[in-house]
Automatic annotation (TrEMBL), chain A:
Sequence ranges of Low complexity compositional bias: 660-671, 715-733
GO biological-process terms attached to the record: intracellular protein transport; vesicle-mediated transport
Subcellular location: Cytoplasmic vesicle, Clathrin-coated vesicle membrane; Golgi apparatus
Family: Belongs to the adaptor complexes large subunit family.
Species annotation: Equus caballus (Horse)
Basic and acidic residues: compositionally biased ranges: 622-633
GO cellular component, one term: AP-3 adaptor complex
Topology within the bilayer: Peripheral membrane protein
Protein name as it appears in the record: AP-3 complex subunit beta
Automatic annotation (TrEMBL), chain B:
GO cellular component, one term: clathrin adaptor complex
Subcellular location: Golgi apparatus; Cytoplasmic vesicle membrane
Keywords: Cytoplasmic vesicle, Golgi apparatus, Membrane, Protein transport, Transport
Single GO BP term: intracellular protein transport
Primary localization: Golgi
Membrane-topology annotation of the record: Peripheral membrane protein
InterPro entries: Adaptor_comp_med_subunit, AP2_Mu_C_sf, AP_mu_sigma_su, Clathrin_mu, Clathrin_mu_CS, Longin-like_dom_sf, MHD
Domain MHD, chain residue ranges per copy: 176-398
Database matches in PANTHER family: AP COMPLEX SUBUNIT MU
Family, similarity comment: Belongs to the adaptor complexes medium subunit family.
Protein name (record): AP-3 complex subunit mu-2
Biological source species: Equus caballus
One Pfam match: Adap_comp_sub
Gene this protein is translated from: AP3M2
Amino acid sequence: MLDTNKDSLKLEAMKRIVAMIARGKNASDLFPAVVKNVACKNIEVKKLVYVYLVRYAEEQQDLALLSISTFQRGLKDPNQLIRASALRVLSSIRVPIIVPIMMLAIKEAASDMSPYVRKTAAHAIPKLYSLDSDQKDQLIEVIEKLLADKTTLVAGSVVMAFEEVCPERIDLIHKNYRKLCNLLIDVEEWGQVVIISMLTRYARTQFLSPTQNESLLEENPEKAFYGSEEDEAKGPGSEEAAAAALPTRKPYVMDPDHRLLLRNTKPLLQSRSAAVVMAVAQLYFHLAPKAEVGVIAKALVRLLRSHSEVQYVVLQNVATMSIKRRGMFEPYLKSFYIRSTDPTQIKILKLEVLTNLANETNIPTVLREFQTYIRSMDKDFVAATIQAIGRCATNIGRVRDTCLNGLVQLLSNRDELVVAESVVVIKKLLQMQPAQHGEIIKHLAKLTDNIQVPMARASILWLIGEYCEHVPRIAPDVLRKMAKSFTAEEDIVKLQVINLAAKLYLTNSKQTKLLTQYVLSLAKYDQNYDIRDRARFTRQLIVPSEQGGALSRHAKKLFLAPKPAPVLESSFKDRDHFQLGSLSHLLNAKATGYQELPDWPEEAPDPSVRNVEVPEWTKCSNREKRKEKEKPFYSDSEGESGPTESADSDPESESESDSKSSSESGSGESSSESDNEDQDEDEEKGRSSESEQSEEEGEKKKMKKRKKVPEGQREGSSSDEGSDSSSSSSESEMTSDTEEEQVEPASWRKKTPPSGKSAPAAKEISLLDLEDFTPPSVQPLSPPTVVSTSLAADLEGLTLTDSPLVPSLLSPVSGAGRQELLHRVAGEGLAVDYTFSRQPFSGDPHMVSVHIHFSNSSDTPIKGLHVGTPKLPAGISIQEFPEIESLSPGESTTAIMGINFCDSTQAANFQLCTQTRQFYVSIQPPVGELMAPVFMSENEFKKEQGKLTGMNEITEKLTLPDASRSDHVVVQKVTATANLGRVPCGTSDEYRFAGRTLTSGSLVLLTLDARPTGAAQLTVNSEKMVIGTMLVKDVVQALTQ
Amino acid sequence: MIHSLFLINSSGDIFLEKHWKSVVSRSVCDYFFEAQERATEAENVPPVIPTPHHYLLSVYRHKIFFVAVIQTEVPPLFVIEFLHRVVDTFQDYFGVCSEPVIKDNVVVVYEVLEEMLDNGFPLATESNILKELIKPPTILRTVVNTITGSTNVGDQLPTGQLSVVPWRRTGVKYTNNEAYFDVVEEIDAIIDKSGSTITAEIQGVIDACVKLTGMPDLTLSFMNPRLLDDVSFHPCVRFKRWESERILSFIPPDGNFRLLSYHVSAQNLVAIPVYVKHNISFRDSTSLGRFEITVGPKQTMGKTIEGVIVTSQMPKGVLNMSLSPSQGTHTFDPVTKMLSWDVGKINPQKLPSLKGTVSLQAGASRPDENPTINLQFKIQQLAISGLNPPLFAKEDWP
């Protein structure tokens, strides 16, 4: 048929041949007949002939040469499609003789007009290389040329060729680095994957590690880390802005090219291709500063909804990441819950991840999930779950007993596999704290009659042997039973029987001597040489004989030495030395062709190598644009400057408007104040950088101020109508307001703006006052970008000056006073105290701002003070203070950090790291610090209180001691205990305070009804009952002291 | 990169093989068969199998294993993603992707595979381009081809390859310009036996069918784009525009494609529109158990729930079940112990229920596992996330 002239018949014949090839049948006999048709005009026949040729040319090299001339003609064809396909086939037929022809063809095609042909040339490079690796040098030249190509079509393929031919020639990338970064988004998905992984390696060799300088990102680790929704909403832009601003301020400067890479890959996290997402994820994991890695979590979790094969690979990677960066995936814990429809391998991987993510706070939920899983029908999965429980139990001491009890219950399960698995895990757990669990061991001993799984039997025997003192009665009995069935046991059990016998012989030789000898002689004639060996060895050791006396004296030490408890670790623990997302990582073995991810260099190589002469580049891109009209739409060179910039500027303007809107309540007053406030801060900057002395002075001042506060308060609150000129204007304002309020309470808020405007002189006084009140603060350390928001927050605080008792709010130190975080001795000369400043924390209003005072009483400077890896309960988050570079002897300094306690009094634990040491410290907030004062009128107060009755109301009766019956004392004590604002009140013997919890913003209302006799009733209304109860307790204690 | 591809059906026959580099003997698949035997179910075959000289990466779809052979380090997802793309392309070409269809169109399949990879590296994977290179078979074209002898292979370079919109071909013409968008949402929920939701999340996709002339540039905006928490796009969507303005701006490919898929986070709890009441008990004394489930609607916003299918894997001890449904049909497979009940529409006045007895293996003790109930249903014209209609949902019920 192939010899006919009719195309349709030829086609039919070729189709049959191709079908044969497809089924894997040998069609090589037909080679001569087929090869003749290579010059056929019909394009479909031609294609099929190509298919055939590529398949069989290797086997019939001589005949294949006949076709070469056709391809060579094809290479000159005006149709680019034909040129390309000719090159493709030519390079695919793997006949060594034509290497020079191929080389020529590739070189020619590399400078072809059509990018499609150039792409094909790029594809041909690795083919030629695999055929004849001597051509490498010439090929590298071609690669270099193609790397300079600016079309997206070529980029992916040429990087692929680069990776296969000369991955070590990293110098070729320099000039093209920026271009590749910018083109990346427009390259097809497959190219993206290859380019990203190449750039990962490149960046590892060319840039400095961003993690060596953590402090750099401490301004917003929170945001980037948890990547919450709001963050996502305005995130990308603001982060970029912050990141862009970073290098100007800090000594460690992230190379702008490094940043470029991170920024340009980030949108690819939203690619539809799982491979691209994974590639970006690994890039971020390996290259991004710790704080930014969090962004990948969400994308990876999304991939979990994909095909099960994708899930499998992604989960493997997540498992590795979750060991190193647990916090990253914690918010997505529930996404790893197992579905009944998951295949077993996915279930097991998910279990792994769940176990890695389990910590003190989420362990109850995780364990509850595990309980459900144990009832599953999939036995492998159940076994894995039991092991997971075991691992949780070892990692989290708190739940160890619960887990152990649960596992013991499983021992009565009817499924033998489950029981066996539990026994093995129990054994490991018991090894950690054997003393308390004699009961369990007894229970296990009973099980020896029933359990048949060798591993479990062996585990039980080992346990009994090891802890035979705890079960002195049972142990010999077990040995007796085992001796009886010795011959029928599995090898592993036999070994343990010998072990048990030996141990018992040593501890309780009277009862077990004969038994041991019996067992040993049985073992002596066992079929397995290991067992015979062991028996001989044991006999020599324990049975005293003339020669071996020396050893047998130490037998007890040998056998009953305390053994370290096993550490149950994730099998993914050591995988992170492989590049994530790679095949080698998946298999946990080096695959052929795997390239190690290089370590970060100590010194940054010269960044200027990446510089391209700028004018040329822009010119080129312009030309490019002109040539291809659509380009500007998608290409980054333009897209970048457009939308990104607007994105950059957006958040800022937003925050500005934010600050405006927040200051609106304070109206003209606050906005005009902002300038002063700024100056004020500048002053502070100067002050804090001065020496210790002046610091002390500042502190003295502070003390004075504090004294001043109560005076003001007394005047403010005791005289309802006395307008007072001596106290600050804000106070006078409020008193007048309270007056007015009695007439027209609802108009309170509306009132403020005019009063603010009308009294500029008074304002000034208040400002002075405020200036004094600002603490010797750390404001200068907070980043300029945040200043606007922090200002806004400060202003918010200022507006509150209108309310009667706010001076206390502004007092720098709370009632709790300084608390010790780290003692001078424990800290090796570093003493750390903390106070709750009660100032709104700049950056995040949900955070309690904590002032940390460091002082160095050692005689060496302490360097690199920063917060290290916080281990926080769920919900609680920390905004770390910027790293303190150095603290010379005798010096002290202060830093502010923000902690979001999530409205709970759980302590925030974190590490305080210096260059040499790490100290574990924890800050536990008094309940009163978890709230911020709010201002409300009496009516509002009553209304809110009406809503919060019943369960939400907590009442306590108390007797006020004489000392604290006066108004100001009561007010002072309450405000010192809790960060509440006073609410004006009509009757003189009632005090009202209001605040909102910081995180959830739920109201906390406090009423104190004091009788002149000293009897008083304290009522707290709050949605958060726990907070309410604790607050009552604290306040009562404060008042009755 | 990818060396060879083998297609293996569920009975273990290699019915198609394709090599992009030198030929790899099909005996390499023996390792795969070994792994397949070890795994009890087809889904449990590990996607990556190392062999002494090669690595086998496989995906399982439409009862066919697509096994790729690779020799050197390559990101596994790269290969897996590609294999899925192959399957999608076949589906696009032939409507279904099944063994007989592939066998019937083996030449087209071969040509397509040839175009998709060059030397193991993906070349053209966009179906728009592929369809220009190799025309999909239609009945009409087969007839025409046999008469005129013309071919399936295009002789023009697909224009898309050259433009910066590689997913769209140029010169598209339609007399009726139309674009359809389908919003499909799935709820995926795990509900414990007392009926409280453990996790629930919404997974949505927007599928589009665009038939527009020329090179249209479309924008699509949502009423409430904040809802879209986590999005992944077709490459045609401009990332930057979405990031800055939350507007989808794109030049669509011609024909059917998936514009975006999104995820609505599990935090804001999802109201699940159906409930299942179940009462399953096994008694120790007799080898009989009682079984009763009722399905009812909950917060459907006036829409009817259709296409309800309840499936449940019964414990091994169950021999047979004699059940009577109030509507729909049910089957119980005594071998796999799978109960499935095709309910159909739910009529809120008369709730469908399935009652009956379970006969257990005599003498065997009471099975201690709780059967898991899976429930699938559809609601037309309703988006549970509040985005846009309609909805497809799936629910999990352990």
